[in-house]
Amino acid sequence: MEKLIITAAICGAEVTKEQNPAVPYTVEEIVREAKSAVDAGAAIVHLHVRRDDGTPTQDKARFKECIDAILKVCPDVIIIPSTGGAVGMTAEERLQPTELPIEMATLDCGTCNFGDEVFENTMPMMRTFGKRMMENNIKPEYECFEMGHLDTIVTMVKKGQVPGAPMQFNFVLGVPGCTPATVGNLEWLVKAIPAGSTWTATGIGRHEFTLAAPAIAMGGHVRVGFEDNLYIEKGVLAKSNGELVAKVVRIAKELGRAVATSAEAREILGLKKK
Questions:
Q1: Domains in the chain: how many in total?
Q2: Does residue 1 form part of some domain?
Q3: Residues of the chain with pLDDT under 70
Q4: What's residue 87's pLDDT?
Q5: Kind of pairing, strands 104-108 and 139-144?
Q6: What CATH number does the domain containing 264 carry?
């Protein structure tokens, strides 16, 4: 079994300091949380950015500032900027990070309910995102929140509308209004991916670690972080993203799975550092 790639989604667009004081907003705080995650064993940082007051933004300059600052202290880490942004942003806003020299970016695979909101990813938007990533040689991480998202993006690959093999999927399960975070649902999705693909499991909220453990045992990869979950255990707020990553490392050790470095993750994902 190949080594485990751990991704840390360090801040997201929705969580706030009122929910957990350690949620990062400023560049300095984002660097602090990225370093804590990498030091604990994360090979990838999934990155949203905020204004200093916590407002989510897709501003290209803010992304560049944060990416450059992270790479100064974690020079080998893989950074995956979000093109999801925050609910209500336009496609043009969301695409700004793809104008930077990045290795990977997320590509959301369909519209879905997102709690009380609707996260819009129309087919024309997805074709636009796919075209940009093919033009700029950016490997997508395909974000699937619903089972139909997987079939949609595989069909788009066959039509040449988005980048193809080798594909990397992130199955985000447990979002209110979307596919529940069960082992059965994860197994169904994994069985349907194209041969040669890699995949990551993301459990939202209380499902973060209960989905991580079966994903590790199944040979997949794992994402944790403040974007998805603010607690290290029931009722106990996590002090850092690094604390969440360290828990996954402990689970992996108990299950006999070695953890990948960023260099090893690049090899597994078929990346060439830019």
A1: 1
A2: no
A3: 273-274
A4: 87
A5: parallel
A6: 3.20.20.70
Which tokens in the block code for residue 90? 């336009």
- Beta carbons of 213 and 254 less than 8 angstroms apart: no
Q: Give the residue carrying structure tokens 């209110």.
A: 176
Nearest to 129 by CA among 105, 145, 147, 111: 105
Q: d(Cα 267, Cα 9) in Å, to the nearest integer? A: 21
Q: How far apart are the first and last CA of the chain?
A: 27
Q: How many residues does the chain have?
A: 274
From 199, 225, 223, select the one nearest 6 (Cα to Cα): 223
* Contact of 159 with 118, CB cutoff 8 Å: no
Show the domain range for 71. 6-269
In a domain, 274, yes or no: no
The residue type found at 29 is E
Rounded-to-integer distance, Cα 14 and Cα 5, Å: 25
Q: Which residues does residue 222 pair with via DSSP β-bridges, in sequence order?
A: 6, 201
222 in Cβ contact with 170 (< 8 Å): no
pLDDT at 273: 66
Closest CA to 242 of 16, 41, 26: 41
**Residue 80 near residue 141 (C-beta atoms within 8 A):** yes
